[in-house]
Prior knowledge:
Layout: E1 11-15, H1 19-37, E2 42-47, H2 53-61, E3 70-75, H3 82-93, E4 100-104, H4 112-121, E5 124-126, H5 132-146, E6 149-150, H6 152-162, H7 169-180, E7 185-186, H8 188-192, H9 203-211, H10 215-227, H11 233-249, H12 258-268, H13 276-308, H14 316-332
Parallel strand pairs: 1-4, 1-5, 2-3, 3-4, 6-7
Amino acid sequence: MASVGDVISSLTLIVGNEPELVYKTLEEVVQKLEHRFGFAVEKISFQGGECSVQDIVSAMSQNYMFSPAALITLRDPSELSAEEAEALLSALNSYTGDNCLVLANFSGTVDSKLKAFFSGKGSLIDCSLNSKGGKSSFLGDEVHQSGLHFSPDAFRRLAETLGEDVAQAIPTLELLKASLGEGATVDTQTLEMYLPTPGDVAPWDFTDAVEAGKVGQALDMLWRLMRAGKKHPLVVLAILQRRFIELAVVSGTNIHDTEQALARLRARDNKFNKPPFVIRKMIASARALGPARLAQAFVWMSQADRQIKGEGGLSPELAIELLVARLAKSFSNRAP
C-alpha cells in the first residue's frame, strides 16, 4: 500500500476503517497535491450517491483557464452502483490528463475492481488500524506530532479512554492545542476536562477483565462494547460463549502443556491459531475457575440467552450485565 509520502499519482484512493483517519489522510494528500501544482489549483468536490459519473469524468476532462490543473475529490465511492463503478473504471483506464482525482471512502466497501485498479497503480492508501500494536503506535505518533507534552499517567489515561477508537485522538489533541497552546504540558488532571466519551474496547480485553475477576472493570468494558462499539447483548454473549468453550476445551486433566491444548483446540476448530502465551492464559484461567464453576458459567450463559430474548422480564442490557458480574465474580471467588 502507498503512504501519503509516496503519493505522486494523479489518481489516488484512500480507504480506512476510521473516518477521522481517512479525513486526516485526505487533508495530507490535498496539501501535497496543492504544493505540487501551486495553491491556485481548482478544487471540485463530489459526493458518491449524489452525483453522476459523467459529472466526474467531465470535470477530469476539462482545462481550467486560471489554474494549472484541477483537484477533484470524490467522497464515499462505496456509494457508487456497480454500473457507475464500472463506468468510472473505464474512464480511469484511458485517462491521460493533468487533473487529479482523489477518492476518499469514509464508510462501506469500495467496488473490488475499482480498488484493484488503484492498488495496481500503487496509489491506494489504506489507513486502516487493525492491530493492537498498530493502534498503539498511531496514538504515540499523534501525541508526539501534536507537540504537546504528556505525562506518562496522562498518556495512559488517554489510551485507556480511547480504547479501540484511537482515531478520536485527532480531535482531542486539536482541542487541547487550541485550549492550552502549542507545546503545553498535559497532566492527568488537565486531560480529564478534555477527554471524549470512552471508546470501544477489544473483545479480548473484555474477557481478560472477566477472567481477572475485576467486576467493576468488566462491567465498564461491557458498556463500552455496547455503547461505543454498538454491540448487541447477544453479540457480547457470543463473545463470552466462545471464550468459555475454549476454556472448557483446555480444562481436561490430560492437558499438561500448550501443545496438547492447541491440539485439542484445533480438533474442535481447525482454523484456530493463537500464540502460546494466549493458550497458557487459557489453561491458567480454566484451572483457576475449576470444573464446578465452569459448569455453572454455562448455566448462567444459557439463562442469559433466554433472558436477552425476552424471557423473565429483564431488559437485554440488564441480563448481560448480570451475567458479566456473575462470571467475573466467579473468577474473583476462586477456591483455595
